[in-house]
Automatic annotation (TrEMBL):
Domain of life: Bacteria
Domain Fumarylacetoacetase N-terminal: 24-125
Alphabetized GO MF terms: fumarylacetoacetase activity; metal ion binding
Pathway it works in: Amino-acid degradation; L-phenylalanine degradation; acetoacetate and fumarate from L-phenylalanine: step 6/6
SUPFAM superfamilies referenced in this protein's UniProt entry, alphabetically: FAH, Fumarylacetoacetate hydrolase, FAH, N-terminal domain
Lineage: Bacteria, Pseudomonadati, Bacteroidota, Cytophagia, Cytophagales
Residues reported in the UniProt entry to bind substrate: 135, 149, 246, 250, 355
Name of the protein in its database record: fumarylacetoacetase
Binding site for Ca(2+): 133, 205, 207, 239
Stored NCBIfam families: fum_ac_acetase
Length: 421
């Protein structure tokens, strides 16, 4: 039995109806627990499949994988084996988990292979060499342009001709669960004089990021047609932003300390293959783009996205519902543009989408837009109001795709904000 778009598979592992981690998903991640050193796992339901034990028990023997490839603190070396191999690894695990397959289900090592997710700590899935952040949502770019520039000409003249992006900071990308400290920096006081102190406009940005799975040589480019060969998978991405620091520093070279203090990601990498069935048509691009940005196929995905705020000792409230299909520029165009000048990419690079906003006010993917730069209070369920993110708040982002009863999701990225040091 294979995983085709019309085939619903089931597993001998119990998977609840709303679980993101179905047998159709099988994302890769790095975990450890009290007894086990960091290693590669695949999530299903409430369980993790320990790939290193599967390997030791000979379940991948016919693939001749390098020894110990799953006993690693990052996915990079496994991803570097290439998509042909990583697809086979995932398909082998999918096959072993099928309801009628007894090979692992009835194996004496099953207890060692299948671990509880709640007993595991999830670590950074990849060692990120370089991180790029795009700015690919038309609605987000329009909202920001209206607020800070000219409401009549919100999009700058280049925006519809190329996927705008900037080179970000890889060292401060952290996994879900690791708190973030409110940044300090220079901002402008109401009289226009520079002052120093903790940011008063701390914000999230609701994004997805893809992780590259194949390197290129300096001087080479990737076409939109080949781009998906270079994409291993996706994670949720919260691009923390200090709006007051950003507003003062960004002219003329763009984001710096208002962004580089941290970005948070979800720990399970959902593969491109798992998302294939959720492809939808890309938005019409008008004016027509230059040839190197044209696409033969669709590279847009219908993925529901949410952002929630949970103030300290209160329940959490959903503040934004958006969708990845809203993106004007797709991932193939982003990668083609990134490499068109010969810039090389490496396995484990991270390319974030930019804030994913929709057209409706409740689909805006940042507090900057939801509160319109602090003009309007955003009401939370408890009656508390927020214009930006306060100390002690936890921001939670979730994402999932669902079609014909098949669900593939990302879990969450959850981060608590600590007061400035
Ligand atoms: Ca961003």
């Amino acid at each position: 039995m294979s995983d085709s778009p019309t085939n619903t598979l089931s597993s001998w592992v119990e998977v609840t109806k709303n679980s993101d981690f179905t047998i159709h998903n099988l994302p890769f991640g790095i975990f450890q627990n009290k007894k086990l050193s960091p290693r590669i796992g695949i999530a299903i339901g409430d369980k993790i499949v320990d790939l290193s034990i599967l390997d030791q028990e000979g379940f991948f023997a016919d693939m001749f994988l390098p020894g110990g490839v799953f006993l690693s603190g990052s996915l990079n070396d496994m991803i570097g084996l290439g998509k042909v191999i990583t697809k086979k690894i995932r398909e082998r695990v999918q096959d072993l988990l099928l309801v009628d397959n007894e090979k692992l289900r009835d194996h004496s090592a099953r207890g060692k292979v299948m671990l509880h997710r709640k007993e595991a700590t999830m670590l950074m899935p990849v060692k990120i060499g370089d991180y790029t952040d795009f700015y690919s949502s038309k609605e987000h770019a329009t909202n920001v342009g209206k607020m800070f520039r000219d409401p009549e000409n919100a999009l700058l003249p280049n925006w519809k001709h190329l996927p705008v992006g900037y080179h970000g900071r890889a060292s401060s990308i952290i996994p879900s669960g690791v708190p973030i400290t409110r940044p300090k920096g220079q901002t402008k006081d109401p009289d226009g004089a520079p002052v120093f102190g903790p940011s008063k406009k701390l914000d999230f940005e609701l994004e997805l990021a893809f992780i590259t799975g194949k390197s290129t040589k300096l001087g080479d480019s990737v076409s939109t047609a080949d781009a998906e060969d270079y994409i291993f998978g996706f994670v949720l991405f919260n691009d923390w932003s200090a709006r007051d620091i950003q507003a003062w520093e960004y002219v003329p070279l763009g984001p710096f300390l208002g962004k580089s203090f941290g970005s948070s990601i979800s720990p399970w990498v959902v593969t491109l293959e798992a998302l294939e069935r959720f492809k939808v048509e890309s938005p019409v691009q008008e004016p027509e783009v230059l040839d190197y940005l044209k696409c033969e196929k669709s590279h847009s995905f219908d993925i529901n996205l949410e952002a929630h705020i949970q103030p300290e000792n209160e329940k959490s409230s959903k503040v934004c519902t958006s969708n990845f299909k809203n993106m004007y520029w797709n991932v193939a165009q982003q990668l083609a543009h990134h490499t068109v000048n010969g810039c090389n990419i490496n396995v484990g690079d991270m390319m974030a989408s930019g804030t994913i906003s929709g057209q409706e006010p409740d689909s805006f993917g940042s507090m900057l837009e939801l509160s319109w730069n602090g003009e309007n209070a955003v009401k939370l369920e408890s009656g508390t109001e927020r214009r930006f993110i306060e100390d002690g708040d936890t921001v939670i982002m979730k994402g999932f795709a669902e079609k014909n009863g098949i669900r593939v999701g990302f879990g969450e990225v959850k981060t608590t904000v600590l007061s400035a040091k």
